[in-house]
Amino acid sequence: MAQALGEDLVQPTELQDDSSSLGSDSELSGPGPYRQADRYGFIGGGSAEPWPGQPPADLIRQREMKWVEMTSHWEKTMSRRYKKVKIQCRKGIPSALRARCWPLLCGAHICQENSPGTYQELASAPGDPQWMETIGRDLHRQFPLHEMFVSPQGHGQQGLLQVLKAYTLYRPEQGYCQAQGPVAAVLLMHLPPEEAFWCLVQICEVYLPGYYGPHMEAVQLDAEVFAALLRKLLPRVHKHLQQVGVGPLLYLPEWFLCLFARSLPFPTVLRIWDAFLSEGAKVLFRVGLTLVRLALGTAEQRLACPGLLETLGALRTIPPTQLQEEVFMSQVHSVALSERDLQREIRAQLGQLPKSAPGPPPRPQARLAGAPAIFEAQQLAGARGGTRPGPQVPRIVVQPPEEPRTPRRKPQTRGKTFHGLLTRARGPPLEGPSRAHRGSASFLDTRF
Protein backbone atom coordinates (compact mmCIF):
# COMPACT_ATOMS: atom_id res chain seq x y z
CA MET A 1 0.00 0.00 0.00
CA ALA A 2 2.84 2.38 0.77
CA GLN A 3 4.25 1.83 -2.69
CA ALA A 4 1.02 3.04 -4.29
CA LEU A 5 1.33 6.32 -2.39
CA GLY A 6 5.10 6.66 -2.78
CA GLU A 7 6.88 9.49 -1.04
CA ASP A 8 8.08 11.08 -4.29
CA LEU A 9 5.99 13.68 -6.03
CA VAL A 10 4.96 13.19 -9.62
CA GLN A 11 5.61 16.41 -11.49
CA PRO A 12 2.94 16.77 -14.21
CA THR A 13 3.37 18.96 -17.22
CA GLU A 14 2.42 22.59 -17.11
CA LEU A 15 -1.33 22.86 -17.39
CA GLN A 16 -3.74 25.75 -17.49
CA ASP A 17 -4.45 27.49 -14.19
CA ASP A 18 -8.07 27.07 -13.17
CA SER A 19 -7.81 28.49 -9.68
CA SER A 20 -10.46 31.10 -10.36
CA SER A 21 -13.10 28.39 -9.97
CA LEU A 22 -12.14 27.68 -6.36
CA GLY A 23 -15.09 27.73 -3.99
CA SER A 24 -13.44 30.08 -1.52
CA ASP A 25 -15.01 31.47 1.65
CA SER A 26 -14.41 34.99 0.43
CA GLU A 27 -16.21 37.94 1.94
CA LEU A 28 -16.67 39.45 -1.51
CA SER A 29 -20.30 40.34 -2.17
CA GLY A 30 -19.88 39.86 -5.90
CA PRO A 31 -17.54 40.34 -8.83
CA GLY A 32 -16.19 43.58 -10.18
CA PRO A 33 -16.81 44.61 -13.76
CA TYR A 34 -18.54 42.00 -15.87
CA ARG A 35 -16.29 39.36 -17.38
CA GLN A 36 -17.06 36.31 -19.43
CA ALA A 37 -18.16 33.25 -17.50
CA ASP A 38 -16.38 29.96 -18.00
CA ARG A 39 -18.07 26.68 -18.88
CA TYR A 40 -19.01 26.11 -15.22
CA GLY A 41 -20.54 29.57 -14.67
CA PHE A 42 -17.64 31.23 -12.85
CA ILE A 43 -17.17 34.82 -13.97
CA GLY A 44 -13.66 35.41 -15.22
CA GLY A 45 -12.73 31.75 -14.77
CA GLY A 46 -10.05 30.03 -16.76
CA SER A 47 -12.25 27.21 -18.04
CA ALA A 48 -13.85 28.94 -21.00
CA GLU A 49 -11.34 27.49 -23.45
CA PRO A 50 -10.46 23.81 -23.95
CA TRP A 51 -7.85 22.68 -21.45
CA PRO A 52 -4.94 20.28 -22.00
CA GLY A 53 -6.01 16.69 -21.64
CA GLN A 54 -9.65 17.40 -22.44
CA PRO A 55 -11.32 14.42 -24.15
CA PRO A 56 -12.21 15.01 -27.79
CA ALA A 57 -15.79 15.79 -28.66
CA ASP A 58 -16.41 12.36 -30.20
CA LEU A 59 -15.31 10.62 -27.00
CA ILE A 60 -17.56 12.88 -24.92
CA ARG A 61 -20.53 11.99 -27.14
CA GLN A 62 -19.78 8.29 -26.78
CA ARG A 63 -19.74 8.61 -23.01
CA GLU A 64 -22.99 10.54 -23.07
CA MET A 65 -24.65 7.78 -25.08
CA LYS A 66 -23.39 5.16 -22.62
CA TRP A 67 -24.86 7.08 -19.71
CA VAL A 68 -28.17 7.58 -21.52
CA GLU A 69 -28.38 3.85 -22.12
CA MET A 70 -27.46 2.96 -18.53
CA THR A 71 -29.85 5.43 -16.92
CA SER A 72 -32.71 4.35 -19.18
CA HIS A 73 -32.64 0.93 -17.46
CA TRP A 74 -31.23 1.95 -14.11
CA GLU A 75 -32.46 -0.95 -11.98
CA LYS A 76 -31.14 -3.48 -14.45
CA THR A 77 -27.85 -1.59 -14.73
CA MET A 78 -27.30 -1.44 -10.97
CA SER A 79 -28.34 -5.06 -10.48
CA ARG A 80 -26.10 -6.56 -13.16
CA ARG A 81 -23.61 -3.99 -14.45
CA TYR A 82 -22.52 -1.79 -11.56
CA LYS A 83 -18.87 -2.36 -12.42
CA LYS A 84 -19.48 -0.50 -15.67
CA VAL A 85 -21.14 2.34 -13.74
CA LYS A 86 -18.12 2.63 -11.45
CA ILE A 87 -15.70 2.73 -14.37
CA GLN A 88 -17.72 5.43 -16.12
CA CYS A 89 -17.93 7.47 -12.90
CA ARG A 90 -14.16 7.33 -12.55
CA LYS A 91 -13.82 8.62 -16.10
CA GLY A 92 -16.16 11.47 -15.23
CA ILE A 93 -19.86 11.91 -15.83
CA PRO A 94 -20.50 14.20 -18.82
CA SER A 95 -21.52 17.68 -17.69
CA ALA A 96 -24.78 17.49 -19.62
CA LEU A 97 -25.89 14.39 -17.68
CA ARG A 98 -24.87 15.08 -14.08
CA ALA A 99 -28.37 16.38 -13.34
CA ARG A 100 -29.70 13.00 -14.41
CA CYS A 101 -27.04 10.77 -12.88
CA TRP A 102 -26.38 12.24 -9.43
CA PRO A 103 -29.93 11.65 -8.06
CA LEU A 104 -29.86 8.10 -9.43
CA LEU A 105 -26.49 7.30 -7.87
CA CYS A 106 -27.37 8.57 -4.40
CA GLY A 107 -30.95 7.28 -4.41
CA ALA A 108 -32.51 10.76 -4.14
CA HIS A 109 -35.02 9.96 -6.88
CA ILE A 110 -36.50 7.19 -4.72
CA CYS A 111 -36.75 9.52 -1.72
CA GLN A 112 -38.51 12.10 -3.85
CA GLU A 113 -40.96 9.53 -5.23
CA ASN A 114 -41.69 8.17 -1.77
CA SER A 115 -42.32 11.64 -0.29
CA PRO A 116 -44.30 13.65 -2.83
CA GLY A 117 -45.00 17.20 -1.77
CA THR A 118 -42.67 17.07 1.23
CA TYR A 119 -40.19 19.60 -0.11
CA GLN A 120 -42.95 22.01 -1.15
CA GLU A 121 -44.40 21.92 2.38
CA LEU A 122 -41.00 22.50 3.96
CA ALA A 123 -40.08 25.30 1.56
CA SER A 124 -43.35 27.15 2.16
CA ALA A 125 -43.24 26.77 5.95
CA PRO A 126 -41.62 29.47 8.12
CA GLY A 127 -38.15 28.52 9.27
CA ASP A 128 -36.62 28.63 12.72
CA PRO A 129 -35.52 32.26 13.28
CA GLN A 130 -32.23 31.11 14.80
CA TRP A 131 -31.25 29.06 11.75
CA MET A 132 -32.67 31.54 9.25
CA GLU A 133 -30.44 34.28 10.59
CA THR A 134 -27.34 32.08 10.43
CA ILE A 135 -28.16 30.84 6.93
CA GLY A 136 -28.78 34.40 5.73
CA ARG A 137 -25.33 35.49 6.89
CA ASP A 138 -23.67 32.65 4.96
CA LEU A 139 -25.45 32.97 1.62
CA HIS A 140 -23.11 35.49 0.03
CA ARG A 141 -20.06 33.42 0.99
CA GLN A 142 -21.00 30.46 -1.22
CA PHE A 143 -19.19 30.81 -4.55
CA PRO A 144 -19.43 34.61 -4.80
CA LEU A 145 -17.86 34.57 -8.28
CA HIS A 146 -20.45 32.22 -9.74
CA GLU A 147 -23.13 33.79 -11.88
CA MET A 148 -25.90 31.98 -9.94
CA PHE A 149 -24.90 33.46 -6.59
CA VAL A 150 -23.88 36.99 -7.56
CA SER A 151 -27.13 38.74 -6.63
CA PRO A 152 -28.69 38.42 -3.16
CA GLN A 153 -32.12 38.43 -4.79
CA GLY A 154 -31.15 36.04 -7.59
CA HIS A 155 -32.52 32.55 -7.97
CA GLY A 156 -29.23 31.04 -6.78
CA GLN A 157 -29.09 32.58 -3.31
CA GLN A 158 -32.84 32.33 -2.85
CA GLY A 159 -32.87 28.67 -3.89
CA LEU A 160 -29.98 27.99 -1.53
CA LEU A 161 -31.92 29.65 1.29
CA GLN A 162 -34.96 27.47 0.63
CA VAL A 163 -32.98 24.22 0.43
CA LEU A 164 -31.05 24.87 3.65
CA LYS A 165 -34.18 26.03 5.47
CA ALA A 166 -36.04 22.92 4.32
CA TYR A 167 -33.32 20.69 5.78
CA THR A 168 -33.48 22.41 9.18
CA LEU A 169 -37.22 21.70 9.23
CA TYR A 170 -36.75 18.16 7.93
CA ARG A 171 -34.16 17.35 10.62
CA PRO A 172 -34.70 19.88 13.43
CA GLU A 173 -32.53 17.85 15.81
CA GLN A 174 -29.55 18.47 13.54
CA GLY A 175 -30.28 21.99 12.38
CA TYR A 176 -27.86 23.79 10.08
CA CYS A 177 -24.15 23.30 9.62
CA GLN A 178 -22.11 25.90 7.73
CA ALA A 179 -20.43 23.17 5.69
CA GLN A 180 -23.80 22.31 4.16
CA GLY A 181 -23.78 25.64 2.32
CA PRO A 182 -21.14 24.85 -0.33
CA VAL A 183 -22.48 21.29 -0.70
CA ALA A 184 -25.99 22.54 -1.39
CA ALA A 185 -24.63 25.26 -3.70
CA VAL A 186 -22.84 22.72 -5.90
CA LEU A 187 -26.02 20.65 -6.07
CA LEU A 188 -28.06 23.71 -7.08
CA MET A 189 -25.65 24.42 -9.92
CA HIS A 190 -26.81 21.16 -11.52
CA LEU A 191 -30.26 20.34 -10.12
CA PRO A 192 -33.64 21.95 -9.39
CA PRO A 193 -34.18 22.85 -5.73
CA GLU A 194 -36.30 19.80 -4.86
CA GLU A 195 -33.84 17.31 -6.31
CA ALA A 196 -30.94 19.21 -4.73
CA PHE A 197 -32.68 18.97 -1.36
CA TRP A 198 -33.09 15.19 -1.53
CA CYS A 199 -29.49 14.76 -2.69
CA LEU A 200 -28.40 16.83 0.32
CA VAL A 201 -30.49 14.58 2.56
CA GLN A 202 -28.80 11.48 1.17
CA ILE A 203 -25.31 12.95 1.57
CA CYS A 204 -25.98 13.99 5.17
CA GLU A 205 -27.76 10.83 6.27
CA VAL A 206 -26.46 7.97 4.12
CA TYR A 207 -23.01 8.89 2.82
CA LEU A 208 -21.77 10.90 5.83
CA PRO A 209 -24.05 10.32 8.83
CA GLY A 210 -22.86 12.09 11.95
CA TYR A 211 -20.96 14.77 10.00
CA TYR A 212 -23.37 17.69 10.11
CA GLY A 213 -24.99 17.25 13.52
CA PRO A 214 -24.24 19.39 16.56
CA HIS A 215 -21.51 17.04 17.85
CA MET A 216 -19.88 15.98 14.55
CA GLU A 217 -18.93 12.68 16.15
CA ALA A 218 -18.24 10.97 12.82
CA VAL A 219 -15.77 13.69 11.81
CA GLN A 220 -13.70 13.04 14.91
CA LEU A 221 -13.69 9.30 14.25
CA ASP A 222 -12.67 9.76 10.62
CA ALA A 223 -9.87 12.11 11.69
CA GLU A 224 -8.41 9.31 13.81
CA VAL A 225 -8.85 6.87 10.94
CA PHE A 226 -7.09 9.26 8.55
CA ALA A 227 -4.17 9.67 10.96
CA ALA A 228 -3.84 5.88 11.22
CA LEU A 229 -3.85 5.55 7.43
CA LEU A 230 -1.17 8.24 7.19
CA ARG A 231 0.97 6.33 9.66
CA LYS A 232 0.73 3.20 7.52
CA LEU A 233 0.92 4.69 4.03
CA LEU A 234 3.06 7.81 4.50
CA PRO A 235 5.11 7.25 7.67
CA ARG A 236 7.58 10.08 7.03
CA VAL A 237 4.83 12.58 6.39
CA HIS A 238 2.98 11.38 9.47
CA LYS A 239 6.09 11.81 11.59
CA HIS A 240 6.61 15.34 10.27
CA LEU A 241 3.00 16.30 11.02
CA GLN A 242 3.39 15.00 14.57
CA GLN A 243 6.63 16.92 15.08
CA VAL A 244 5.15 20.26 14.02
CA GLY A 245 1.89 19.63 15.88
CA VAL A 246 -0.47 19.45 12.89
CA GLY A 247 -3.27 17.04 13.70
CA PRO A 248 -5.88 15.96 11.15
CA LEU A 249 -8.58 18.08 12.79
CA LEU A 250 -6.69 21.21 11.67
CA TYR A 251 -7.19 20.54 7.96
CA LEU A 252 -9.42 17.49 7.43
CA PRO A 253 -12.86 18.92 8.41
CA GLU A 254 -12.75 21.56 5.68
CA TRP A 255 -11.89 18.90 3.12
CA PHE A 256 -14.40 16.23 4.13
CA LEU A 257 -17.33 18.33 5.35
CA CYS A 258 -17.43 20.42 2.17
CA LEU A 259 -16.49 17.49 -0.08
CA PHE A 260 -13.46 19.53 -1.20
CA ALA A 261 -15.75 22.16 -2.78
CA ARG A 262 -13.82 25.00 -1.10
CA SER A 263 -10.35 23.54 -1.49
CA LEU A 264 -9.79 22.39 -5.09
CA PRO A 265 -10.39 23.65 -8.63
CA PHE A 266 -14.01 23.20 -9.59
CA PRO A 267 -13.45 20.70 -12.48
CA THR A 268 -11.57 18.47 -10.05
CA VAL A 269 -14.33 18.88 -7.45
CA LEU A 270 -16.90 17.58 -9.92
CA ARG A 271 -14.78 14.53 -10.74
CA ILE A 272 -14.40 13.82 -7.02
CA TRP A 273 -18.17 14.05 -6.56
CA ASP A 274 -18.77 11.64 -9.45
CA ALA A 275 -16.58 9.02 -7.79
CA PHE A 276 -17.84 9.83 -4.28
CA LEU A 277 -21.51 9.34 -5.16
CA SER A 278 -20.56 6.03 -6.78
CA GLU A 279 -18.11 4.54 -4.27
CA GLY A 280 -18.79 6.37 -1.01
CA ALA A 281 -16.57 7.89 1.68
CA LYS A 282 -13.60 5.78 0.61
CA VAL A 283 -13.02 8.34 -2.15
CA LEU A 284 -12.65 11.17 0.39
CA PHE A 285 -9.87 9.32 2.18
CA ARG A 286 -8.09 8.60 -1.09
CA VAL A 287 -8.28 12.27 -2.11
CA GLY A 288 -7.02 13.42 1.29
CA LEU A 289 -4.06 11.05 1.20
CA THR A 290 -3.18 12.20 -2.29
CA LEU A 291 -3.27 15.87 -1.26
CA VAL A 292 -1.01 15.25 1.73
CA ARG A 293 1.45 13.41 -0.47
CA LEU A 294 1.46 16.19 -3.06
CA ALA A 295 2.09 18.82 -0.37
CA LEU A 296 4.61 17.03 1.87
CA GLY A 297 5.72 13.93 0.01
CA THR A 298 9.37 14.89 -0.56
CA ALA A 299 12.11 15.65 1.93
CA GLU A 300 12.59 19.10 0.38
CA GLN A 301 8.95 19.96 0.93
CA ARG A 302 9.10 18.90 4.57
CA LEU A 303 12.30 20.87 5.18
CA ALA A 304 10.57 23.95 3.80
CA CYS A 305 7.84 23.56 6.45
CA PRO A 306 9.61 23.71 9.82
CA GLY A 307 6.56 24.83 11.78
CA LEU A 308 2.82 24.52 12.11
CA LEU A 309 1.90 27.55 10.00
CA GLU A 310 4.21 26.61 7.14
CA THR A 311 2.85 23.05 7.08
CA LEU A 312 -0.76 24.17 7.04
CA GLY A 313 0.10 26.66 4.31
CA ALA A 314 1.63 23.91 2.20
CA LEU A 315 -1.49 21.77 2.57
CA ARG A 316 -3.68 24.67 1.42
CA THR A 317 -1.56 26.02 -1.42
CA ILE A 318 -0.83 23.06 -3.65
CA PRO A 319 -0.10 24.41 -7.17
CA PRO A 320 -3.21 24.18 -9.37
CA THR A 321 -1.13 22.59 -12.12
CA GLN A 322 -0.84 19.50 -9.91
CA LEU A 323 -4.59 19.45 -9.29
CA GLN A 324 -5.74 19.23 -12.89
CA GLU A 325 -8.57 16.71 -12.91
CA GLU A 326 -7.22 14.03 -15.24
CA VAL A 327 -3.77 13.84 -13.65
CA PHE A 328 -5.05 14.24 -10.10
CA MET A 329 -7.86 11.69 -10.33
CA SER A 330 -5.58 9.06 -11.83
CA GLN A 331 -3.43 9.38 -8.71
CA VAL A 332 -6.49 9.24 -6.47
CA HIS A 333 -7.75 6.00 -7.98
CA SER A 334 -4.31 4.43 -7.71
CA VAL A 335 -4.30 4.68 -3.90
CA ALA A 336 -4.38 1.14 -2.55
CA LEU A 337 -7.17 1.71 -0.05
CA SER A 338 -10.08 -0.67 -0.40
CA GLU A 339 -13.42 -0.54 1.34
CA ARG A 340 -12.37 -3.54 3.44
CA ASP A 341 -9.18 -1.76 4.55
CA LEU A 342 -11.18 1.32 5.49
CA GLN A 343 -13.76 -0.63 7.49
CA ARG A 344 -11.05 -2.54 9.31
CA GLU A 345 -9.36 0.70 10.37
CA ILE A 346 -12.68 2.24 11.39
CA ARG A 347 -13.38 -0.70 13.70
CA ALA A 348 -9.89 -0.45 15.19
CA GLN A 349 -10.19 3.27 15.91
CA LEU A 350 -13.75 2.94 17.17
CA GLY A 351 -12.55 0.56 19.86
CA GLN A 352 -9.93 3.08 20.99
CA LEU A 353 -12.30 6.01 21.46
CA PRO A 354 -12.81 7.03 25.09
CA LYS A 355 -16.07 5.80 26.52
CA SER A 356 -16.66 9.10 28.32
CA ALA A 357 -16.49 11.24 25.20
CA PRO A 358 -19.19 13.93 25.07
CA GLY A 359 -22.05 13.54 22.66
CA PRO A 360 -23.46 10.41 21.07
CA PRO A 361 -21.06 7.67 19.96
CA PRO A 362 -20.27 7.41 16.23
CA ARG A 363 -22.35 4.95 14.24
CA PRO A 364 -20.19 3.94 11.28
CA GLN A 365 -22.59 1.11 10.49
CA ALA A 366 -25.13 3.73 9.36
CA ARG A 367 -22.82 4.79 6.53
CA LEU A 368 -23.46 2.99 3.27
CA ALA A 369 -20.61 2.28 0.88
CA GLY A 370 -21.78 4.17 -2.17
CA ALA A 371 -24.38 3.63 -4.86
CA PRO A 372 -24.59 -0.21 -4.82
CA ALA A 373 -25.22 -0.37 -1.08
CA ILE A 374 -27.86 2.37 -1.32
CA PHE A 375 -29.55 0.61 -4.23
CA GLU A 376 -29.66 -2.70 -2.36
CA ALA A 377 -31.01 -1.05 0.78
CA GLN A 378 -33.80 0.68 -1.13
CA GLN A 379 -34.68 -2.50 -3.00
CA LEU A 380 -34.77 -4.44 0.27
CA ALA A 381 -36.96 -1.80 1.90
CA GLY A 382 -39.40 -2.09 -1.00
CA ALA A 383 -39.43 -5.88 -0.85
CA ARG A 384 -40.24 -5.83 2.88
CA GLY A 385 -43.50 -4.06 2.27
CA GLY A 386 -42.37 -0.45 2.33
CA THR A 387 -42.85 1.98 -0.48
CA ARG A 388 -41.91 0.33 -3.72
CA PRO A 389 -38.96 1.92 -5.57
CA GLY A 390 -40.97 2.71 -8.67
CA PRO A 391 -44.41 2.07 -10.18
CA GLN A 392 -46.04 -1.09 -8.94
CA VAL A 393 -46.95 -3.64 -11.59
CA PRO A 394 -49.63 -6.20 -10.69
CA ARG A 395 -48.25 -9.70 -10.47
CA ILE A 396 -50.18 -12.52 -12.05
CA VAL A 397 -49.52 -15.82 -10.32
CA VAL A 398 -50.64 -18.99 -12.13
CA GLN A 399 -51.07 -21.97 -9.84
CA PRO A 400 -50.19 -25.32 -11.49
CA PRO A 401 -52.99 -27.91 -11.58
CA GLU A 402 -53.03 -30.28 -8.68
CA GLU A 403 -51.95 -33.84 -9.45
CA PRO A 404 -54.63 -36.47 -8.80
CA ARG A 405 -54.06 -38.21 -5.52
CA THR A 406 -53.89 -42.01 -5.40
CA PRO A 407 -56.66 -43.30 -3.11
CA ARG A 408 -55.35 -44.70 0.09
CA ARG A 409 -55.75 -48.47 0.33
CA LYS A 410 -57.15 -49.91 3.50
CA PRO A 411 -55.08 -52.62 5.09
CA GLN A 412 -56.36 -56.14 4.55
CA THR A 413 -57.41 -57.17 8.04
CA ARG A 414 -60.37 -59.38 7.27
CA GLY A 415 -59.95 -62.75 8.92
CA LYS A 416 -56.86 -61.65 10.78
CA THR A 417 -56.71 -61.63 14.53
CA PHE A 418 -55.26 -59.12 16.91
CA HIS A 419 -52.89 -61.80 18.10
CA GLY A 420 -51.58 -62.28 14.56
CA LEU A 421 -51.00 -58.55 14.04
CA LEU A 422 -49.05 -58.29 17.25
CA THR A 423 -46.95 -61.27 16.26
CA ARG A 424 -45.90 -59.77 12.91
CA ALA A 425 -45.30 -56.35 14.39
CA ARG A 426 -43.38 -57.30 17.52
CA GLY A 427 -41.61 -60.47 16.58
CA PRO A 428 -42.03 -63.32 19.07
CA PRO A 429 -45.61 -64.37 19.76
CA LEU A 430 -47.29 -63.28 22.93
CA GLU A 431 -48.20 -65.80 25.56
CA GLY A 432 -51.73 -66.98 24.95
CA PRO A 433 -53.84 -70.04 24.38
CA SER A 434 -52.25 -72.96 22.65
CA ARG A 435 -53.09 -74.03 19.10
CA ALA A 436 -55.40 -76.66 20.46
CA HIS A 437 -57.61 -74.09 22.22
CA ARG A 438 -58.05 -71.55 19.39
CA GLY A 439 -61.69 -72.54 19.00
CA SER A 440 -62.45 -71.48 22.57
CA ALA A 441 -64.61 -68.50 23.40
CA SER A 442 -61.73 -66.50 24.80
CA PHE A 443 -59.91 -66.66 21.50
CA LEU A 444 -63.05 -65.81 19.51
CA ASP A 445 -63.45 -62.67 21.64
CA THR A 446 -60.25 -61.26 20.18
CA ARG A 447 -61.56 -61.06 16.61
CA PHE A 448 -62.30 -57.64 15.08
Describe the structure.
With 448 residues, this protein is mainly α. The longest helix has 17 residues. The N and C termini lie far apart (86 Å).
Could you give the topology of this structure?
Elements: H1 57-72, H2 74-80, H3 82-91, H4 98-106, H5 108-114, H6 118-124, H7 129-138, H8 155-170, H9 180-188, H10 193-207, H11 217-233, H12 235-244, H13 252-257, H14 266-279, H15 282-296, H16 299-303, H17 308-316, H18 325-333, H19 339-352, H20 371-383, H21 418-426, H22 441-444
Helix pairs in contact: 2-3, 3-14, 5-10, 7-8, 8-9, 8-10, 9-10, 11-12, 11-19, 14-15, 14-18, 15-17, 15-18
Short key terms for the protein model shown above:
448 residues, mainly alpha, 0% strand, globular, disordered C terminus
How is this structure best summarized?
The protein is 52% helix and 0% strand. The chain is mainly α and 448 residues long. Helix 8 (155-170) packs across helix 10, helix 11 crosses helix 19 (339-352) and helix 15 crosses helix 18.
Strand-pairing-aware structural class = mainly alpha
Measured between the Cα atoms of the first and last residue, the distance is 86 Å
Number of strands: 0
Q: Label the overall shape.
A: globular
Number of helices in the DSSP assignment: 22
Low-confidence regions: 1-33, 387-398, 418-423, 435-448
Helix content: 40-55%
Mean of the pLDDT scores?
81
C-alpha Rg, in Å? 33 Å
Return the string of H and E elements: HHHHHHHHHHHHHHHHHHHHHH
Biggest sheet, in brief? none
Strand content: under 5%
